[in-house]
Amino acid sequence: MALMRKRLSEFDIYRWTVSFLDRIKEVKTSQAEREHKKLEGRWKDKLFQDFLDAENRLLLLNYDGTLVPFSPDPDQAVQDAGMRRILKKLAAGSHTELVVPSGRSRKSLGSRLGNIDCGLVAEHGSWIKKDAVTDWQRLDRLSGNGIELLKPVFRDYEVRVPGSLIEEKEHGIAWHYRKADPELGRLRANELFDYLSEYLANTDFHVMQGNKVIEVRTSGVDKGHAVSSWLSMKTWDFILALGDDWTDEDLFKAVPSDSYTVKVSYGPSSARFYLESPQSIKKLLLKLSQLSP
Length: 293
Ligand SMILES: [Mg+2]
Fold this sequence. Notes:
Helix content is 39%, strand content 20%. It contains 11 helices and 13 strands. The strands form 2 sheets. The protein has a 9-stranded mixed β-sheet with strand order 1-13-12-11-2-3-4-5-6. The longest helix is centred in the middle third of the chain and has 18 residues, at 182-199. The chain starts with a helix and ends with a helix.
């Protein structure tokens, strides 16, 4: 904590701005990350057949950008009636466990999916809810006042990038720039990410770059860790993991390698497959719900 406080006191806005000019760069993608292929043709047929043949199935379905299209206003992003029916049908399937890992708060996720009998993961893994009747369970450690120390930095970005906003979570803080000018937002996000990565190194915090969001959380908290209790519940014959952004990579890495991992949109990923959009995801899930016993 003292280390972080010292670092934060050492950099001011002028240092940030000057270094910013040297620091504009895209997030480097690891060469090690494999190419993934489109989920179609025989692979899609095999997925459907494996789903049918399985005695038990685990479905890990990210929310924003996966089950619902990405929206400039997070409050507006809600599944439509069609998707609600699909999720209900899948959740009701015998020997099928449905879990929705998300960066959303407990309240926001609960209000969207509370009437569906599924597991929930909120705030990227800080909280899990095993099923409709179990209470929320907290997985992360106390953040202390570390997040408080970071607030001025996030506020500064909120001011400097019109349209962006801070979201204070129970155990983290996020800066969203969905509504900001895309180019300015992207540049500032890369800048903020680079600095926070450097200054939070070896502290109890880590920074994540999601879809139009930069977020700081306590270390050791991610979606992969959060779903481990479901993964260890039994030997699953069929696992499907769907996600759209960087934070879902932890999910893809946590599941056994023969699982069906699908990223929304083509790009570097640990996922085996990709689909173009939440609309293609909806078609896939509709078919699974029709096959669902
Ligand atoms: Mg997402």
